[in-house]
Amino acid sequence: MNIKEEKRQLRNETMKRIAELSKDYTLEADKKIYEKVINLKEYKEAKVIFCFVSTEDEINTRNIIENALGSGKRVGVPKCIGKGIMEVHEIKGYKSLKDGKYGILEPKDECPLIKSEEIDFAIIPCVSCNMEGYRLGYGGGFYDRYLEHATFTTAVICREKITCDYIPYDEHDVKIHKVITDR
């Protein structure tokens, strides 16, 4: 089995595990992750934050985004612009978002671009990750391409119950600096 097949199999297994998580656990885990994120030195010192906009099955990032905006930080969120290619655009709140590709909220067209070199800290999604900072994404390669030359600090957020000891990776997979779980 090659790495691509290993990832596909692990992604399918993990999605089943995610579906089995209790609502109580996910709410409690998300609350703990939020507290850890907003208390990180890198987050507190950042003037420009890049954060994904969560879907229903992901860790809820709305509180993180609203905390950052309320703290006077500039907040950028991803916008898919092509196959495996995304940009980061600044939002002023959830009213700056519209339905985008893959059922994910993304910035409206009038939202200004934030260049990678302006970003201080980024919160990255995953299906699963290991404690070394390797993540299993959704398979589109958007984040690995975007983060390939990034100079800012990155943190992946993941519920403890869906972390894995082993995440298959190859040379194009970008290792994330920090792993934040509910533990």
Automatic annotation (TrEMBL):
InterPro entries: FTHF_cligase (IPR002698), FTHF_cligase-like_sf (IPR024185), NagB/RpiA_transferase-like (IPR037171). It catalyses: (6S)-5-formyl-5,6,7,8-tetrahydrofolate + ATP = (6R)-5,10-methenyltetrahydrofolate + ADP + phosphate. The keyword ATP-binding applies. ATP binds at residues 7-11, 135-143. The keyword Ribosomal protein does not apply. Its cofactor is Mg(2+). Pfam families: 5-FTHF_cyc-lig. SUPFAM superfamilies: NagB/RpiA/CoA transferase-like. Keywords: ATP-binding, Ligase, Magnesium, Metal-binding, Nucleotide-binding. Substrate binds at residues 53, 58. Gene3D superfamilies: NagB/RpiA/CoA transferase-like. Its EC number is 6.3.3.2. Belongs to the 5-formyltetrahydrofolate cyclo-ligase family. This is 5-formyltetrahydrofolate cyclo-ligase.
